[in-house]
Amino acid sequence: MRKLLIMKQTARIISIYASDTAGVCSMLYELGGMTVVHDASGCNSTYSTHDEPRWYQQDSMIYISALTETDAILGNDARLVDDMVRAAEELKPRFLALCGSPMPMMIGTDFDALAMELETKTGLPVFGLHTNGMNSYLQGASDALCAYLKRFCTDTEKQKRSVNIIGATPLDFSLNGSISSIKTWLSGNGYDVVSCMAMESAPEEIAMAGKAAVNLVISSCGIAAAEYLKNRFSIPYVTGVPYGKAFADELLLSLKKAEEQGICFSPHTGRTVPDKGGISVVGESITASSFAAALAADCGVPVRVLCPAALQPAVLAPGDRVINCEDQISAEFSESEIVFADPLFEPVCPAGVRFIRYPHEAFSGRCFSGEIKNHICRELKREMFSL
Amino acid sequence: MLTKVQPHLDMSGAEIRIGDAVFPSPFEAGLEFSAPARGPWNIVHTGMLVPQSHQIFACARGCLRGVILTAAEMNAMNRMSWVSLEENDLFSGKMEQDLVDGCVHILEQMKRKPKAVLLFVSCLHLFSGFDFTLVLEQLRERFPEIDFIECYMHPTMRKSGLTPDQMMRQQLFAPLKSLPENPKSVAIVGNDRPTDPESFLCRSLAGNGLGVRDITLCRDYEEYLRMGESSLMIATYPPAKAGAEHLAKRLNRKFFYYPLSYSYAENARNQRCFLELLGLPEVDPELQIRTAEEALKQLKDVIGNIAIEIDYTSTPRPLGLARLLLEHGFNVKRVYADVFIGEEKEDFEFLKTNYPELILTATVHVKMRFSGKGCRTEEPVLAIGQKAAYFSGTRHFVNIVAGGGAHGFEGIIRMCEWMIDAFKNEKDTKEVIKLKGLGCESCLL
Q1: B124·A106 Cβ contact <8 A
Q2: Is B310 helix (H, G, I), strand (E, B) or coil?
Q3: Domain layout of chain B by residue ranges
Q4: Helix, strand, coil distribution of chain A in percent, nearest 5
Q5: How far B305 CA lies from chain A's nearest CA (Å)?
Q6: Quick one: DSSP state of residue B226?
Q7: A187 vs chain B: nearest CA distance in angstroms?
Q8: Residue A4 has pLDDT above 70, yes or no
Q9: A225-234: per-residue pLDDT in tens?
Q10: Residues B124-140: what's their mean pLDDT?
């Protein structure tokens, strides 16, 4: 059989991860601001349909600018500014966030300048975010959270045994109770949860993030924010999601050590990764790697993480792999015995390799959201996956 | 934490009495909201109508996401591929070659090649001087057995010339070639759903031995190509008019625009012209009008004075429908639309003069984010269309898009039946309207 050329940026049959604009909107969704994607049409309906399960049940001011060809050619930013000022006067958001889609990048829209102008005209805090619809949701969510924290975090006294959860969006955690379970797990182990960024926390709680003794980063979109809080408030952080029983205990231990020693830990990266064969888990690095660690600890099986290149920066164990394209994904699958991946990867899973559906909203949107299980602090057993 | 950030909001700017409104755009343009009513079709749904075809989208991740998941939700990922554009690509000088290579790579992996490939490029391509012709030439040379169809996903151009929807309905028929003309074959062009077989249009054609070719009924690509033998191209859906006219001109065939209408006079006029064009004897519409009147009377007996709200996704003529119902004593309170098509002008002016209190409501206005959630009265509403159902919060609604396949006088009767059904039977609004592409398969069901 002829060997196929590896072709990046091309896919015959698989889906694509949510974009940076969706990441911005998702991270800021619950924070009371108005987020505007500078876009002609499409970003808003794609986001609200596929990337935002809260759209129907919880109000949030997420809009598009409705960019036109004429405005794009003439570089007419005045309409965008006027529209945002008028909407802000009518809707009274806490802040404004403006981010870009591909066309504004093409025409060189200066989001920083627009943010300054909007800030002057509205008197509100305004963030200009440099998205272009070409990067992953993790990048957008990360940028948005950092911008928000820089603006709203206040200096405050430290509180022992307190923690922020950083990196929570439905794109990685769906709306299946996982975030509440993480909070309950922390509280049950003596931690005061200062805030969860950015689900199920009031803006006032996030403003007090600086008082936490340690941060728990549950998705790689939270790393930059954790670094910022570390630099500004000397808060160490631990990456990981408390999946399973034994790994949750290990994560707890890492939180304790981080607080005591003031250094950061990524306990999910200490796994032994098989060279080939065995089990592969596909997904965002911290969630997938934590799930791999939980499977290893609870079920005694070695697991390798396959992190799509789109989802970097990745926090992975030595031996985990970054995969670039559909062809490479298929090749990696063929070296596994069992694959845990979103169902929209299944068509490239070779015959003979067992495929276990492990949906990820950032990849398949709402298609399989009902199947996304809450594995927080619940012991994983071999029989759950017929391992 | 599930709190409303704006519990009660003055809706000025988002709604206006028609007596105070201007045609065709009653509202000031601004930032836009997207209501979670997903029944209306997009270019992916429409493109899938070409039997045995495959779609390849070339654009940025953010744009790809929506179209790919449209295909995923309709269980059609085996007919969807993509080539993503990244920042470097815009400056590499290789956009054309990269797209050719990507398409070749995709197609070479297919054991069974599609009959046609709808290749979509984006706003970015148009703004960067992309040579689409070159790409299509190379692909046609490489795969002579495949029809490559030039398609666009370019929402930035939605207010310049043909809209992406109109363009899609035009390109949908690009592979058709002028076959020997068959005087017994007529094509209905550019509609998403089959036209009601009980309509005068379909009955007249069938009753006079004329075969109807319609993309929604084509079982395979050969049948689709045979639309090219049709002697007459008919468009019934306004966004399909430009494409059907273009097709007729290209194939040197007759064209007739026979739009869905709720006006007796317009339907009678169109019916007469249609019969004349086919050389068929005139039919007195009196009986059809009487039947429509009876249907409207029966509707009134059932639904009484309940408030009626209509949105533009349910029918391309929401004002025409509002006029018909108001003239028959129904309590039409509100029409949801952001802009009206030109052929609604007469009805707009009539309603402005005779029913100035009718409310026009925008659907994309920023304040509509908060409509239907504490801003409105609790008055029971019978809605026509998914957006009207969403904004009014009712569970009683007519679940159709793009006219629902209804047509002519019979379209009025069909609407009366749908309204009675909606009045009598509740729907789970949220669950129904979340499904993309009404009538398509959905993995969410």
Answers
A1: yes
A2: strand
A3: 15-37+286-433, 51-171, 182-278
A4: 45, 15, 40
A5: 30
A6: G
A7: 18
A8: no
A9: 999 999 999 9
A10: 93
Out of B38, B106, B366, name the one closest to residue A91 (CB): B366
Contact B85 A134 (CB under 8 A): yes
Which CATH number is associated with domain B51-171?
3.40.50.1980
Is B160 in Cβ contact with A134 (below 8 Å)? no
> Which residues of A fall within a CB distance of 8 Å from B40?
none
Angle at A110 between CA A107 and CA A111, to 5 degrees: 120
The residue of chain A with its CA nearest to that of B107 is: A12
Rg (CA), chain A: 21
Distance CA B216, CA B194 (A): 6
Q: Which of residues 189-218 of B touch A (CB under 8 A)?
A: none
CATH code matching the domain that covers B15-37+286-433, chosen among 2.30.29, 1.20.120, 2.30.30, 3.40.50: 3.40.50
Q: Round to whole Å and give the CA distance between B117 and B171.
A: 12
Let me know the angle formed at the C-alpha of B284 by B278 and B290, rounded to the nearest 5 degrees: 130
B51-171 and B182-278: identical CATH topology: yes
Q: Read off the pLDDT of residues B275-301 as tens digits, 9 standing for 90 and up.
A: 999 999 999 999 999 999 999 999 999
Among B residues 397-436, those touching chain A with beta carbons less than 8 Å apart: 430, 434, 436
pTM of the entire predicted model:
0.95
Q: Cβ separation of A44 and B444 shorter than 8 Å?
A: no
CATH architecture of residue range(s) B182-278: 3-Layer(aba) Sandwich (3.40)
Tell me which of B158 and A297 has the higher pLDDT: A297
Go through the domains of chain A in sequence order and give each one's CATH number: 20-151 (3.40.50.1980), 153-268 (3.40.50.1980), 269-384 (3.40.50.720)
Do the chains contact at A4 and B108, CB–CB below 8 Å? yes
